[in-house]
Design goal:
5 helices
């Protein structure tokens, strides 16, 4: 089975888009109710594999938001995926686990992502 971990030497600066805006504002460009999750995303390695509005190694956050409805169950499932990793839902790429994240932080990140198509 082919697997692609979410580690890359490419910089977010190579792909100017909404991701850059979020990074350049430290996450405060997000709506107030979701800023904490956005800030956590900017402080972790998430943008190594994801962008807000374009596919990179992993799906864009907007595509994730479009695929899943915004509800507590999906926030919990996505938070679990952020912490424990996994793959097979989008293609052969594998989500790198982030075991040092606490559930509350992963849920805040997931809520921000799922909010993108529902604002």
């Amino acid at each position: 089975m082919a697997a692609t971990a979410c580690h890359s030497s490419q910089s977010h600066r190579d792909h100017p888009n909404a991701t850059d805006s979020l990074i350049n504002t430290g996450g405060t460009a997000a709506p107030p109710g979701y800023q904490r999750g956005a800030v956590l995303i900017t402080h972790n390695d998430c943008f190594t594999c994801h962008r807000i509005d374009t596919k990179l190694r992993g799906p864009s956050y907007l595509d994730i938001s479009k695929k899943y409805g915004f509800n507590e169950g999906n926030v919990e499932n996505l938070a679990h995926k952020i912490i424990y990793g996994g793959g097979g839902l989008w293609d052969t790429a594998v989500m790198t686990p982030h075991p040092n994240l606490v559930e509350e932080d992963a849920k805040a990140m997931a809520a921000y992502i799922l909010s993108l198509n529902h604002q």
